[in-house]
UniProtKB/TrEMBL annotation:
Superkingdom of the organism of origin: Bacteria
High-level lineage: Bacteria, Pseudomonadati, Bacteroidota, Cytophagia, Cytophagales
Assigned GO CC terms: membrane
Domain Cationic amino acid transporter C-terminal: 514-557
Name recorded for this polypeptide: Amino acid permease
Transmembrane domains' residue ranges: 40-61, 67-89, 110-134, 199-220, 227-249, 261-279, 300-324, 344-367, 397-415, 421-440, 460-479, 491-509, 514-532, 538-555
Localization (cell): Membrane
Length: 563
């Protein structure tokens, strides 16, 4: 059974499918090839420049000060290692499925299933977070225009309850009533009651998911046009913010550059990494690219470079306009312009935030159905997931299912419960894709066209980096080893130290290429820094996925022995 769990798809069969097109078995004509390198670059920017630059950048800057710009560089380099590995795979495996398909080629079926299941956390579950964020920005715009939706239609039940209880405690302690506290009380006490329970739903989040699902259902061409328009608009606004930001900046706010040391900068790791999530989503559109071997690698790398430059400039503009300690707010871009007396610019930023998060929703809504379509083609999911609409040439059933799974939870869920799970799913994919590249040379030694990952022998560099890591973290390692009641977080760190040691030894023995090894090690470290409670939910999620695989996919796989 162990051999059948790791059965692999061949590069030859994948290349043949890519050239000839794949029959979905339901009369579908296959997907429409309409995406150019410009479209892919725009889609990458559409996925990356979203809630991160409009919200989480403030939290990171409040800890690290102007030095947070260095963290954007470091995170971009980490993501860049993975991006280069994605580019290598996209060139060799030009077919829908992203990291799922790549893992199928390099590691085998069970690992492919695990990564495909994890990617649901990045695309489908991640879109719940973005939809809730979109709803918040949209409600602010409505209120600025004098339109006020009932409070119970704009918030989830848990957030409403906690806000109401907190407000009551503040009033009991003698705090004076504020307009915000009054709105919390009004929303809670005017909410409809059914069977003794007050009803709260995030209706705007639900509606935007329905609209995005419809757009992705009717066609990639329409989705491409929508994404391109939104990217042009939000880049224009970001450049506008950068220019005006440097006009109002005070150089004195940039000194000291590292007010809390590098430790303060590192506190923003999770917030900054979240700002980069999404550039890999364009790899799911391989079958809709005009020239996937050439254009997919370029699109991923171009979008990552452009977004990094924009992030660095925005971080410097923000920390130059106000003191870094003031930036721990939900809407830092709007806040800094209000502080310098330019409220009209903050309104433009609010509009841009709505557009930016809409484009993220669009790209993620494109990604998830195409992964399910690939899994269905391989027999791991029912055939319905692979159906391509005869008119729109989109995976319509998968698109509708994705929309349903995102829209319903967005009515009731808290975004904080989903953000870390999204990061785990993404980083998990990055680690496996980076490791998978190391398997490819043994699978395909023939000459080929397309992007080729530069080879740098890591046998000397990686041991030095590992030794430096041990030196810097020796106190933490000793403390965790001697702690008889080590927590899950501490156990994960020790597991990382062990695995990093194993990878270092293998790199020396097998002369692994430096870039994919650094991709694995850097992304794995970011993984273990995610709170332990999110890991517990991740293990539950994986257990559910394995139950589905062994009850259906293992037996129905196209690679399963025919009885």
């Amino acid at each position: 059974m162990s051999k059948s769990l790791f059965r692999k798809k061949s590069l030859e069969a994948i290349a043949r499918d890519a050239e000839q097109g794949i029959d979905d078995g339901h009369g579908g004509k296959g997907l429409r090839r309409v995406l150019s390198v410009r479209d892919l670059t725009f889609m990458g920017i559409a996925a990356v420049v979203g809630a991160g630059i409009f919200s989480t950048i403030g939290t990171a800057a409040s800890n690290g000060g102007p030095g947070i710009s260095l963290l954007f560089v470091l995170t971009a380099v980490t993501c860049g290692f993975s991006a280069l590995c994605y580019a290598e795979f996209a060139s060799r495996v030009p077919i829908s499925g992203s990291a799922y398909t790549y893992a199928y080629v390099s590691f085998g079926e069970i690992i492919a299933w695990i990564i495909g299941w994890a990617l649901i956390l990045e695309y489908a579950i991640g879109n719940i977070v973005v939809a809730i964020s979109w709803s918040s920005y949209f409600n602010h715009l409505l209120e600025a225009g004098g339109i006020h939706l009932p409070g119970w239609l704009t918030i989830d039940p848990d957030t409403a309850r906690v806000a109401y209880e907190t407000t009551q405690q503040q009033l009991s302690s003698g705090v004076a009533m504020t307009p915000n506290m009054q709105s919390v009380i009004t929303a809670y006490e005017t909410a409809p009651v059914i069977a003794g329970h007050r009803i709260f739903v995030n209706f705007p989040a639900f509606i935007i998911i329905v609209l995005i699902t419809w757009l992705t259902y009717v066609g990639i061409k329409e989705s491409k046009k929508g994404a391109n328009f939104m990217v042009i608009f939000k880049i224009a606004v970001v450049l506008f913010v950068i220019v005006f930001g440097f006009i109002y900046a005070k150089p004195s706010y940039w000194s000291p550059f590292l007010p809390n040391g590098f430790e303060g900068v590192l506190k923003g790791v999770s917030a900054v990494f979240y700002a980069y999530i999404g550039f890999d989503a364009i790899s799911t559109t391989a079958e809709e690219c005009k020239d996937p071997k050439r254009d997919l690698p370029r699109g991923m790398i171009y979008s990552l470079v452009i977004c990094t430059v924009l992030y660095i400039l925005v971080a410097l503009a923000l920390t130059g306009m106000v003191h870094y300690s003031e930036l721990n707010v939900n809407d830092p871009l709007a806040y800094v312009f209000e502080r310098v007396g330019q409220e009209w610019i903050s309104y433009i930023i609010a509009v841009s935030a709505v557009v930016a998060t809409t484009s993220v929703l669009l790209v993620f809504a494109l990604g998830q159905p195409r992964i399910w379509m690939s899994m269905s083609r391989d027999g791991l999911l029912p055939k319905a997931f692979a159906r391509v609409h005869p008119r729109y040439q989109t995976p319509h059933f998968s698109t509708v299912v994705t929309g349903f799974l995102v829209a319903i939870p967005s009515l009731f869920m808290q975004s904080s419960l989903m953000t870390d799970l999204t990061s785990i799913g993404t980083l998990f994919a990055f680690v496996l894709v980076s490791g998978g590249v190391l398997m490819l040379p043994r699978l395909d030694n023939a000459g080929r066209s397309g992007f080729k990952l530069p080879y740098v022998n890591g046998r000397f560099i990686v041991p030095v980096l590992y030794a430096l890591f041990l030196y810097l973290f020796i106190d933490r390692i000793q403390a965790d080893l001697t702690n008889p009641a080590a927590s899950l977080q501490e156990a994960l760190f020790l597991v990382y130290v062990l695995l990093a040691g194993v990878i270092t030894v293998l790199t020396v023995v097998k002369r692994y290429s430096l870039i994919p090894v650094l991709g694995m090690l850097c992304c794995a470290y970011l993984l273990i820094e995610i709170p332990a409670v999110s890991w517990e939910w991740f293990f539950v999620w994986m257990a559910i996925g394995l139950v589905i695989y062994f009850s259906y996919g293992y037996w129905k796989s196209r690679l399963a022995p025919k009885l």
